[in-house]
From TrEMBL, chain A:
Domain UBC core span(s) in chain numbering: 5-160
PROSITE patterns documented for this protein: UBC_2
Annotated organism of origin: Penicillium angulare
Residue ranges the record marks as coiled coil: none
Keywords for this protein: Ubl conjugation pathway
Database matches in Pfam families: UQ_con
SUPFAM superfamilies in UniProt: UBC-like
SMART domains: UBCc
Protein name: Ubiquitin conjugating enzyme
Keyword flag DNA repair: no
UniProtKB/TrEMBL annotation, chain B:
Full protein name: RBR-type E3 ubiquitin transferase
Alphabetized SUPFAM superfamilies for the sequence: RING/U-box
PANTHER family associated with the record: RBR FAMILY RING FINGER AND IBR DOMAIN-CONTAINING (PTHR11685)
Enzyme Commission number(s): 2.3.2.31
GO terms, biological process: protein ubiquitination
Annotated source species: Penicillium angulare
Residue spans of biased composition, Polar residues class: 56-66
InterPro entries referenced in this protein's UniProt entry, alphabetically: Ariadne, ARIH1-like_UBL, E3_UB_ligase_RBR, IBR_dom, TRIAD_supradom, Znf_C3HC4_RING-type, Znf_RING, Znf_RING/FYVE/PHD
Keywords assigned by UniProt, alphabetized: Metal-binding, Repeat, Transferase, Ubl conjugation pathway, Zinc, Zinc-finger
Length: 160, 630
């Protein structure tokens, strides 16, 4: 359970998002203060992501927003009422883990919000043209048992 | 601050006044003659190397003080005087104070001197290169001059048999030794501060900004920093996260209509703070942010503004204003840590719990020709270049390669050597774990006979029964195989000796722990005084040190080309090895015999030490001229 510091901040964020949300972003679940779920869509007609909606899971520690939240895509099977695949992207592993400096300790700024993270991910998808997974995807997915915050990503690619 | 400071050498004071110095027992005299003979025997081979002549002087003149040598010494003594101060440092730190240096009247308080001469560090940094070239030419002569005397004195003391035997491992600077200084945390902080204030004064910046600049440029030489600053002031300030010109004092404010972007809190009396970048947050959030960075992430020198994409660095004044005292201590500690990490001439002592750093001017790029062994105030001796335990005379690069090789190879190599052969065509290693002699290499499909290594096709109809030893293809294959086995054997030769000394050093260490017990029991059994039984302690230390050196000589020899210098190196190695083994043997004798053996042990100890010094000096000199490895 998030502490009052994180809790206060999150409830304010929620309040603000209920007032206004940018296009393509919707709140799915925000009843608990330590885990939220959001849906995002890509707005332009990038053929890779056209007509798809993706589900994001945010996990907050009680040091949020000093510490970044853990953010990853989650998958709902195509047979469900709301199918949610994992988007194809050279920085998104097939288990939904995202390699983005913004979400790491060094790239994170406490000024970021759930909303701004969603927007960053939207634009990360929009800008992508490569229909591929990160190199070493299968090994990573098969062997990674670490929590997201303990993975040492190397952010070497500034283009995508 | 210096808990390991050696006690002032009071018992020696009266001893050195006693004119016993030149009373030499016959046995010692004989040995000296023998030693001189050895020195004359091995060293003329080094004629090509000019420096070698000096080494010879160093060893033989000490035994027979001829008048001409004395003249030379006088001259060298003059040169030496200027360097005396630094040498004293070394002696002090290593805890061995020789009588020659105490007569110069050194202060007994190294701390004080540390404060008195902070300029030496900065000065030597500026002229590192001069210093290096200095060391490789004049200095060697200089130290040798003083060396003559010290060795003479060692023997004098030795022969009286009463004095502090520790002098046998006295630390005059030899060609294989480097100059260094031990710094404690307050000294490091003072040094840092002095540089910051200096740069601040020159550039007309507030000290905290100068500190950021220096940290940003990873504490480069001040001249370079200042030059760069003058030529591109604005860009540099921007890059360092200082933005444009700084002004004003750091203070928290209450601002109208403010909402903190971190906690989304607003309120009429919310205390806020912004650095000069203007990103304003409430003091609470700022505090949270900074403590997270300092405590959780261990950051200090490069904490950026919490604002998104703002690279302005939080300066120490802002920090002082915002964080609690316990964090400030941690912050300063972290700053000191990055300072030492950033400076090329500083390195932390790697011993556990040790808080000292070493200041040494040997450059990374010179490590192929210098092995900079340093000794911390905590007595830990390590290599300044790579932080590993002392590995004289082998350069860091080879040490790294050797350790890597040992890790990968040694066990495997032993097994391979015993159990496998190589495919005569592709050299793949093959283990025959059953079946007949008809081998088909899985890799290149070459078919051969396991017994004679020849082509299987030449075996005709004599299946499964090799009687064709004379076939050409077979003998060729066997020669090739022998070659590759020879290189493996060569490696194992050196490895086994290396490992043996490592093992023996471990055993000797156990012995060292028992030494004290031995000393006590020797004292009670023979009626010798505590000072008189010190020779055992000295012998044990010398034994340790020599084993350490020997161990690394084998790793070193593995990489040496076969030439005359290598031969001399191996002769030196052999001499040291023999000396060490015989000392080791004496050392293990039962306690009642030790008292009788005292003179022999003393002699052997001195001899071992001298062999070690000769080996290391020789190697260091050749190494510094890049004669040994290419």
């Amino acid at each position: 359970m998030a502490s009052s510091f994180a809790g206060k901040r999150l409830s304010k964020e929620l309040l603000k998002m209920h007032e206004h949300l940018p296009p393509g972003i919707t709140i799915v679940k925000s009843d608990a203060l330590d885990e939220w779920q959001m849906d995002i869509r890509v707005l332009d007609d990038n053929p890779l992501y056209k007509d798809q909606t993706y589900r994001l899971k945010f996990a907050f520690s009680d040091k949020y927003p000093i510490e970044p939240p853990e953010v990853q895509f989650i998958e709902l099977p195509s047979t469900s009422d709301t199918p949610r695949p994992i988007p194809m992207h050279p920085h998104i592993y097939s288990n939904g883990i995202i390699c983005l400096d913004l979400l790491g300790q060094s790239g994170w700024s406490p000024v970021q919000t759930v909303e701004s993270v969603c927007m960053s991910l939207q634009s990360m998808l929009t800008a992508n043209t490569r229909d591929e997974r990160p190199p070493g995807n299968s090994e990573f997915v098969a062997y990674n048992r670490r929590r997201i915050r303990d993975i040492n990503f190397v952010y070497e690619d500034d283009n995508v | 601050m210096f808990p390991t400071l050696p006690p002032p050498p009071t018992p020696r004071a009266f001893l050195s006044d006693v004119p016993l110095r030149f009373i030499t027992p016959p046995s010692t005299r004989k040995r000296k003659a023998a030693e001189a003979a050895i020195a004359d025997d091995t060293l003329p081979l080094l004629k090509s190397a000019t420096k070698a002549a000096h080494t010879r002087n160093a060893t033989s003149t000490s035994l027979s003080d001829t008048p001409s040598d004395k003249d030379e010494k006088k001259k060298e003594k003059e040169k030496e005087n200027t360097k005396q101060q630094d040498k004293l440092d070394i002696e002090h730190l290593t805890g061995f104070v020789s009588s020659s240096s105490s007569s110069v009247g050194q202060s007994q308080c190294p701390k004080k001197r540390g404060i008195a001469t902070p300029a030496t560090t900065t000065a030597s940094m500026d002229s590192d290169d001069d210093f290096m070239s200095d060391m490789s030419s004049d200095d060697f002569l200089g130290t040798q001059g003083s060396d003559d005397e010290s060795i003479g004195e060692d023997f004098g003391d030795l022969d009286t048999g009463f004095s502090d035997d520790k002098e046998l491992i006295s630390h005059q600077r030899q060609p294989f030794e480097v100059e260094f200084k031990v710094l404690d945390p307050p000294e490091i902080e003072r040094e840092q501060l002095a540089q910051i204030n200096n740069v601040a004064a020159i550039l007309g910046l507030p000290p905290e900004s100068a500190a950021i600049l220096l940290r940003f440029r990873r504490w480069v030489q001040q001249e370079r920093l200042i030059e760069e600053y003058i030529s591109r002031e604005d860009e540099m300030l921007e890059e360092a996260g200082l933005g444009t010109k700084c002004q004003g004092v750091a203070k928290t404010e209450v601002v109208n209509d403010f909402m903190c972007e971190i906690c989304c809190e607003d309120g009429p009396d919310l205390e806020t703070y912004a650095m000069r970048c203007g990103h304003r947050f409430c003091v609470d959030c700022y505090r949270h942010y900074l403590s997270g960075k300092i405590k959780e992430e261990g950051e200090a020198a490069r904490i950026e503004c919490p604002g998104d994409n703002c690279h302005r660095i939080v300066d120490s004044r802002s920090l002082d204003l915002l964080v609690t005292d316990d964090l400030k201590d941690r912050y300063r500690e972290l700053l000191t840590r990055t300072y030492v990490d950033d400076k090329e001439n500083l390195r932390w002592c790697p011993a556990p719990e040790c808080q000292y750093a070493i200041d040494c001017s040997v450059k990374q790029r010179d490590l192929f020709r210098i092995v900079p062994t340093v000794v911390c105030a905590c007595k830990h001796d390590f290599c300044f270049g790579c932080s590993l335990k002392d590995h004289q005379p082998t350069p860091c690069l080879l040490v790294k390669r050797w350790l890597q090789k040992c890790e990968d190879d040694s066990e495997t190599a032993n097994w391979i050597s015993a159990n496998t052969k190589e495919c005569p065509r592709c050299q793949s290693t093959i283990e025959k774990n059953g079946g007949c002699n008809h081998m088909t290499c899985r890799k290149c499909k070459h078919e051969f006979c396991w017994m004679c290594m020849g082509l299987w096709s030449e075996h005709g109809t004599s299946w499964y029964n090799c009687s064709r030893y004379e076939e050409k293809s077979g003998s060729d294959a066997r020669t090739a195989q022998q070659k590759s086995r020879a290189s493996l054997d060569r490696y194992l030769h050196y490895y086994n000796r290396y490992a043996n000394h490592e093992q023996s050093a471990k055993l000797d260490k156990d012995l060292y722990l028992k030494t004290e017990k031995k000393m006590t029991s020797l004292q009670s059994q023979s009626g010798l005084s505590w000072i008189e039984v010190q020779f055992l302690d000295t012998a044990s230390q010398v034994l340790q040190q020599c084993r350490q050196t020997l161990k690394w000589t084998y790793a070193f020899a593995f990489y040496l080309e076969r030439n005359n210098l290598t031969e001399i190196f191996e002769d030196n190695q052999k001499d040291l090895e023999l000396a060490v083994e015989s000392l080791s043997e004496m050392f293990e004798k039962p306690v009642p015999e030790l008292a009788e053996l005292k003179v022999d042990i003393l002699d052997k100890t001195a001899y071992c030490n001298k062999r070690r010094v000769i080996l290391l000096s020789d190697t260091a000199e050749n190494l510094s001229k890049s004669k040994l490895i290419h």
